[in-house]
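Shift notes (night). Ran Major facilitator transporter while the centrifuge was going.
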Amino acid sequence: MDLPTLNGTSSRTSDTVQIVDVEPTRNPASSDNATMKDFYVIAAGYIFFTLTDTAVRMIVLFGLWQRHFQALNIAIMFVSYEALGVVTNLFGGIMGSRLGLRFCLLLGLLLQLVGISLLFVLDREDVSHWSQAAVTGYVVFAQSFSGAAKDLVKLAGKSSTKLATKAAKNRKTNAGDPLFKLVAWLTGAKNSVKGLGFLIGAVLINYAGLWRALLVMVLLTLLPLPGVWMWLDPRLGISKDQQRLTLREIFDKGRDVNMLSLARVFLFGSRDLWFEIALPIWLRAQFDWNFTASGAFLAVWIIIYGAVQTITPQYILKPLKMYPFKRAKLLVIWTVLLMIITIAIAAYLTAVRNKPISDQKAATLSIISIGLAVFAFVFAVNSSIHSYLIVAYAAKDKIAINVGFYYCANALGRLTGTLLSGFMFQYYGIWVCIWTSVGFLAICTVITAFFRDVKDANTE
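Came back to this:
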């Protein structure tokens, strides 16, 4: 995959790139290279982290399911992961604006090492004598470190795209919108790697066991640390405005960021209502798959999702005459389409829920595979446009704070979806999870109808 530059190609140009608090001693001729170097270093750290984070999620999920933990127990174990994400995004944005993106990225990688290291205890023989409540509590504690880590790293990754472009008012080039392309590339690459992480985690827990699987994760997390420390500008992302923030300023980011963040809660809640907990367990139970097969299914889904995010600006929205994407209300079309697809999947699972699986195993697998592939495509377009809108709406000098607040909403949606997923799947079934997802998407659609165009938001 070619790395993008700001004119939408894979080659370097002489376009000037603006960045917050650039060192005055830098050679102006090399400022473009220095800025893109910062972006590439952050992107590498973000992608390596994503690989380990998703692999660890599979290792924990399948490792505990193998030990006869129920779906609700496993969902509770991930509560701290998502809850810490809410808190980290809310205050991590403030941290990033004061201490810089390098600090956030380094802290995130170090916290991930702590979270993974704590899980080694689960491989000890005496842990088999612990009660399920004790194991659940311990994993909740360990996952809290990974939850905080994930959103510190994501904050750095998403903020870097805005800082590596010109100011929003001057984002007109022959190649369209370079900001959208940069956001789409990073988000798509991250999600493709996320799919690979699902597969690696499932294969490792299946063939190598818990201890060796976690050791591989520790080594992969260590890889980007030297580059981040040595090559990343320590002042990147620091806001010029260092005044104290009031409680209202922390939570009120203006109409556009607030509305987008609220829509994000329901968009990602709709996915995690069935994807993170219910789907992998349902696949194993319904089709007698091993960990590798279940992980491969999830990996393919995520890779499709990531690939679509990467090509959304140029190959999906442009042919539909929606690119450059300035009319934000056009996103309603994509949320409605996503809701229709979800209704179709839910309706099928409702119709066959009381029939013997042996009578329709092949048909169910085919329909679910096709339905989820189409869902992945449309969800990826929605997510890609969301990721663009937050960096387009956000004030450039306070990008870390605004992006942090937005991903606080993202984590809140994942937290809600994960909890509801575990409860509904255990007591009602996956079909109820997906019908609830339909409700979330209906709310998301209504909120999206009130989005303002990008140019209107930037001229406020």
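The chain is about 75% helix and 0% strand. Residues 28-234+248-458 form a domain with the Growth Hormone; Chain: A; fold (CATH 1.20.1250.20).
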